[in-house]
Amino acid sequence: MILRISQPIARTLTFRVPKTHRRFFGSSSNQNRVFANIRTPDELHNLTLVSAADNRPLITLWSASWCTTCQAVKPIVKGLIEDERIGEQEGGLGYAEVELDSTLIGDLGVKYMITSMPTLLAFSRQEAQLETKLVRPEQMKDREFLRQWLMTEARRGGRAGGGGGSLFGGLFGGR
């Protein structure tokens, strides 16, 4: 890989980047990425930015520590993404859990119309895919259904779609 840096007045610099360092210079990897739990609106914003820059959808699991159904769903979702690497062939996924019982989370649940826990919500290019969010625990516990949902979101490849164009896109079908 050759990296060229040009400046309007200065001369062009050319140097070789060793293979071991190419990942730092934008070589894309289809590997799924599991991020730390989200506890503030800024953390969610930052992760949606990172995922958009990687052209990789971000899958978020909205849950609370006291929610027993959430605790049952978490290992299934995380296992499919982290261990079985579902979505990597389609370009990769990002994954993070949003802690709704964090005292710093504010009205983030209201902003994204989270009406029940657990909820799985994908973001593509920083847009919440409200039309495709999962709210039924029985679907989240069905490994085959969940596998298909994750692959569909991964195929989106960080591209907008699914009614995420506006806050009310999921309710009124607008983009």
TrEMBL record:
Domain of life: Eukaryota
Residues covered by the Thioredoxin domain: 54-132
Pfam family, one: Thioredoxin
Protein name stated in the entry: Thioredoxin domain-containing protein
